[in-house]
Amino acid sequence: NSRSTMLTALEESFRRFAIHGDTRATGKDMHGKNWSKLCKDCGVIDGKNITLTDVDIVFSKVKKKTCRTITYDEFKVALGELARKKYKDKTGEEAEAEVFKLIEGKAPVIAGVTRAVASPTVSRLTDPTKFTGSHKERFDETGRGKGKAGRVDIVDTSGYVSGYKHRGTYEKKSSPAGTFLSDSK
């Protein structure tokens, strides 16, 4: 993939967000909806220094009056504005670098994996980031199921029927799984 070496990580992210949900988009400019999604997904919006309103205001400020989108350069200007607001104690350049770091290499968070699912209930059930407790162990960071590996700690593999009274007599946790199968029952 030699093309990506020509794009900076920031530009790469800009493009991913710019075309998100828009099949006709070229990736050269971004409309307000995706701009605010980018700020949300990448954690630029923190609810304290930066809110959705700030993000919207900056967007209208940097874009050309007649346009509904911002270019990559305007995008960087907008991020610079937000950066100074978000990291008040840093110099403009440091603040910008921090915000760029939040965004570099990121892609839009898509709830669930399939785009076809519209019902909120289903997408909630199929979105592994919403899983809690032992279920979240069954997925890796990308939300792919780990199959058996992720379940081993949940399923009781001791071979005993639960509640069996001699349980634990020769089950030494340190021995590899296969060893006690050869013991005569």
How much β-strand is present in the residues? under 5%
**Arrangement of strands in the largest sheet:** 1-2
- Helix/sheet category: mainly alpha
Q: Helical percent range?
A: 25-40%
Biggest β-sheet description? 2 strands, antiparallel
Shape category: globular
Low-pLDDT residue intervals, each spanning 5 or more residues = none
Order of helices and strands: HEHHEHHHH
* Rg measurement, Å: 25 Å
**Total number of helices:** 7
GO biological process, one term: microtubule polymerization
Subcellular location: Cytoplasm
Main location: cytoplasm
Biased composition (Basic and acidic residues): 134-150
Walk me through this protein's architecture:
With 185 residues, the protein is mostly helical. The chain is built from seven helices and two strands, in the order αβααβαααα. The protein has a two-stranded antiparallel ribbon with strand order 1-2. α2 crosses α3 and α3 packs across α4. The longest helix has 15 residues. It starts with 8 loop residues before the first helix and ends in a 34-residue tail after the last helix. 16% of the residues are buried.
Question: Which characteristics define this entry?
Answer:
TPP/p25; globular; mainly alpha; 185 residues; single chain
Write a concise synopsis of the structure shown.
The chain is mainly alpha-helical and 185 residues long.
Compile the SSE list and pairings.
Elements: H1 9-19, E1 29-31, H2 32-41, H3 52-62, E2 69-71, H4 72-86, H5 92-103, H6 120-126, H7 148-151
